[in-house]
Amino acid sequence: MAQIDLEALRERIRQMDFERGTPEQIALWREDVAESRANLVIEDMTPTSDEDAMFAMMLEEGVPPALMPSIILSLYPPGTRQIAA
Questions:
Q1: Could you tell me the end-to-end alpha-carbon distance of the chain, in angstroms, rounded to an integer?
Q2: Which domain of life is it from (predicted)?
Q3: Which residues contact 77 (CB under 8 A, 6 or more apart)?
Q4: How far apart are CA 20 and CA 44, in angstroms?
Q5: Other C-beta atoms lying within 10 Å of the C-beta of residue 4
């Protein structure tokens, strides 16, 4: 994945219209993301520190984990190295 501009990504996410998680949901999602990350490490697909920071920021913004991949693909189209305009 390209270098991630967290502040630009945060700004774009804040402009999006979707149902954000409640604090209770976000706490559960953090546990799920931590478990998923541990599984990736076991499979020798350790996320980079940029990727970890991106997912942490998305949770801070209340993005449901099921929505994260589509947001990432819409903002960072395959083959590009920067956030889409």
A1: 17
A2: Bacteria
A3: 84
A4: 31
A5: 20
Whole-angstrom distance, CA of residue 85 vs CA of residue 75: 8
DSSP states of 13-73: HHHS-S-PPPHHHHHHHHHHHHHHHHHHHHTT-PPPHHHHHHHHHHHHTT--TTTHHHHHH
Question: Mind listing the pLDDT tens digit for each residue in 1-41?
Answer: 457 789 989 999 999 999 999 999 999 999 999 999 899 99
Those residues with Cβ within 8 angstroms of residue 57's Cβ, 6 or more apart along the chain or in another chain: 6, 9, 10
Eight-state DSSP code of residue 84 = -
Closest CA to 43 of 52, 53, 35, 51: 35
